[in-house]
Amino acid sequence: MPDQAHGLRALADIARRELEELPRSSETTLTPVLARKSTIDLNGLAASHLDQAVCGSSYALADISQVNQERVNSVSAPRVQHARVIAITSGKGGVGKTSISTNLALMMAKSGQRVVVLDADLGLANLHIMLGVNPKYHLQHVISGEKTLGEVLYPCSGGIMIVGGGSGMCDLADLDNARRDAFLADLSSLDEMADVILLDTGAGLSRNVISFLCAAEEVVVLSTPEPTSLMDAYATIKVVSREAPEVRLGLVVNMARTDEEARATKDRMIKITKQYLKIDLDFLGSIPFDVVVPQAVRAQKPFTTTYPNAQASRAVEQIASHMGYRSQAPSGGGISGFLNRMQNFGRRLNSAGHR
Ligand SMILES: Nc1ncnc2c1ncn2[C@@H]1O[C@H](COP(=O)(O)OP(=O)(O)OP(=O)(O)O)[C@@H](O)[C@H]1O
Ligand SMILES: [Mg+2]
After folding, report:
1. Is the CB of 103 under 6 A from ligand 1?
2. Distance CA 36, CA 39 (A)
3. pLDDT band at 355 (very low <50, low <70, confident <90, very high)
4. Which of 35, 57, 210, 274 has its CA at a distance of 20 to 30 angstroms from the CA of residue 178?
5. Nearest residue by C-alpha to atom 8 in ligand 1
6. Count of alpha carbons within 13 angstroms of residue 235, beta-carbon side
7. What local confidence, expressed as pLDDT, does residue 171 receive?
8. 3-state secondary structure string across 8-38
9. Is the dihedral of CA 98, 292, 312, 261 positive or negative?
10. Does residue 118's CB lie within 6 angstroms of at least one atom of ligand 1?
11. Cβ distance 246 to 338 under 8 Å?
């Protein structure tokens, strides 16, 4: 297919040019992320705890302008079709990231979008388990050059494709130039194949999770109504909003037992992020606590497929449709832009001695 080959080559050239424009060295130094202690009350939890939580587990780039410039560079590159890169995350673990990523992907696919879900949980890659599939190859095989991206994309029922990630994602920041260019050329073909790339990240504020979040175009932060979950979600939002102000941040409340609880959780988070971080968090919706979710996990089937009329399924459908309306967002350069930014974060953190 000469046309397709030509298209891919053109994409690869653009990606390479973008890479060449990026500074190869970094003088950026790292500083503790928070200076100010605040006293917000989250269900009785003093928010000075939030600050400590963030200080203890994170870092800030003293100069984020370079990263932002990369985003601008990738926007001003010749226009090609770029996939939206959306990271799904939470501060606390076990709040539903993988369940929501898979079902959100299915709902987006149902509305006609081409969706790829990338398992970006480096510790416990289990996206495939939730879908009841067992892909033989994953991103590591592409990074090592054994397989092409097309060979590791695993089609699942419902029209979505997944890529197993696991620990291979760690290696992305450390690729040598030749390997990185080859990988990037391959990966950039995702921009032609997908409208949306969802990253199912791990929990917390590890160096890798932060790199994914700050490199993504949109970040969906999940929180349950529990104060610990809220506190950790706030910490995540705080870091991302400071490190990468262009990233579009959205909130999903999961596992609320009543509408009132969902509303109160949302209101609290919107209020404290506005008051203390000066950001307008985009509320994307809430998903009630619903027994069909764990039932579907046990059956290794997505709940939106098995129980399409369940409350949780309808809620995810609404969130997918809400997110669809936001799709006219300025492009951050698709998957190539994402990878460039992520690598740059990695290089800076390496040069500052962060592991
Ligand atoms: N809306 C919901 N109602 C009931 N149970 C839910 C809901 N959402 C998620 N769960 C349950 O919560 C558990 C954790 O879900 P999941 O594995 O998706 O979370 P996670 O955030 O990806 O976890 P990890 O941080 O370990 O990656 C699962 O048992 C799932 O069934
Ligand atoms: Mg998970």
Report:
1. no
2. 10
3. low
4. 210
5. 96
6. 28
7. 63
8. HHHHHHHHHHHHHHCCCCCCCCEECCCCCCC
9. negative
10. no
11. no
Chain CA centroid to CA 232, Å: 16
Residue 25 has pLDDT above 60, yes or no: no
- Whether residue 234 has its Cβ less than 6 Å from ligand 1: no
Q: Which amino acid is at 328?
A: Q
Residue tagged 């921009």 (tokens):
191
CA-to-CA distance for 31 and 61, rounded, in angstroms? Answer: 7
- Could you tell me if the CB of 299 is within 6 A of ligand 1? no
For residue 157, what is the DSSP state? T
Cβ(313) – ligand 1 distance below 6 Å: no
Spell out the alpha helix ranges (H) of 59-118. Answer: 65-76, 97-110
Q: Map out the domains of the chain with their CATH numbers.
A: 2-351 (3.40.50.300)
The pTM assigned to this predicted structure is 0.78
Ligand 1: which of 90, 97, 99 to mutate, most ligand atoms within 8 Å of CB? 99
**pLDDT tens digits, 110-130:** 999 999 999 988 777 889 999
